[in-house]
Amino acid sequence: MKPHGHVEVNTLKKLVFIHGLLLSSWVFAWMQGYFTRRGYQCYQFTYSSRNNTISQSADQLYHWLVSNNIRNPYMICHSLGGLVCHAYLNDQIESEYLPLKVVCLGTPFKGSMVAKNLARYLPGKILLGAQASSVLVTGLKEWRSYCRLGIIAGSKNVGAGRLLGLDSHRPADGTVLVEETKIEGASDHIILPVSHSQMTFSTKVNLQIEHFMSNDIFKHENP
Questions:
Q1: How do residues 200-216 score in pLDDT, each as one tens digit?
Q2: I need a surface site. Which of 22, 76, 77, 119 has the fewest CB within 10 A?
Q3: H or E stretch covering 205
């Protein structure tokens, strides 16, 4: 019999969390607590999302993984963090530091309508910083890594994006359109009733992440 409060330790599963634009590691605090209690080894990668180019952040990620000896983790990426992860996978060939699987939350792989609108004006360019002309605006064509990618999009259209030109008539999470989260080469894609900012504070999202890590697909409801 297991003692009361016993937690099964997943010694083989390490999770690396990568935050999005204008945020820091605190955005994953609640999610990290959840997975830590589930027995995962959790790490939070912090970078200057506004000052660094995506390529610079990807290079920083590599050196951070090596310095902390984090080999073959699972990566959970919010928004811009997914683009940093994509760049990292394209730049690095040392397999021992590459992720086993990646789950992206609200990452605008096809480019962000909100970012495009911001980049048209000087105040918006200042806010976006190095991302004003990055793939956050221009988008990507495909996921080119061998690494299995699961994408979670939100359908709760509540957020500042609606004030910045986000199309209110199309499915979105309040910041990113559902269509913007899709990319050729992804293993699976699922839409959950959460907003962009709620993704890292949602039990539904956590359960889907766990299901993807174990099964390579999300748990889709039967029609």
A1: 999 999 999 999 999 99
A2: 22
A3: helix 203-215
